[in-house]
Amino acid sequence: MTNWARRERQWLCELFDEVGPDAPTLCGEWTTRQLAAHLVLRERRPDAALGVVVGLGPLQRHTDAVQRRLADKPWTELVGMVRSGPPAWSPISIGPIDEAANTVEFFVHHEDVRRAAPGWIPRRLDPAEDEALSRAAKRLKMLIRRSPFGLELRRPDGTVLARKTGERTVTVEGNPGELILFAFGRQAHADVRYQGVETDIAAVKAASFGI
Known about the structure:
Blueprint: H1 4-19, H2 32-44, H3 46-54, H4 57-71, H5 75-84, H6 95-114, H7 127-137, E1 150-154, E2 160-164, E3 169-173, H8 176-183, E4 193-195, H9 198-206
Parallel strand pairs: 1-3
Antiparallel strand pairs: 1-2, 3-4
Helix pairs in contact: 1-5, 1-6, 2-3, 2-4, 2-5, 3-4, 7-8
């Protein structure tokens, strides 16, 4: 079976090589340099990685300081660290764990770089990757918990990947990767279709999703 996390990692690193360290991303004000540093920190610095999730006080300051030091590395070295993946002592270096932890992570960040550039178009994914992303998307309910209305993420074939109940519901339809991008707060760059009351749709498009 293809490890899509590894494929997306490789494709992202090829794109890093192409666009360089100062290209924009969809991660706020981060350039590709900050994004690459974030990916290295996440896999190689467990002492700092917790701050990515918690984001409070001294822990966040430590995370920020480590990420700045990593970002100061020469670009080729930094991309090489992303490309080589987690060190052997990390559980993420084990294939199935890598796939579980990184398939969505690297798909989303690959698209963060692709879709920050003008003229982007959605990729046509291998059906096997679509299915891998679909399996991962079934865990998206936590990411859409802040929806102001009921929300249903649905594939074109009618399969519901995530749902938040509410008195009124907005349905978001798209391929699994697009629904993942939507749930990670990239609504403006996700190739999806909406069904529902227009004002509800507008509120969902503006909502703060993600971790």
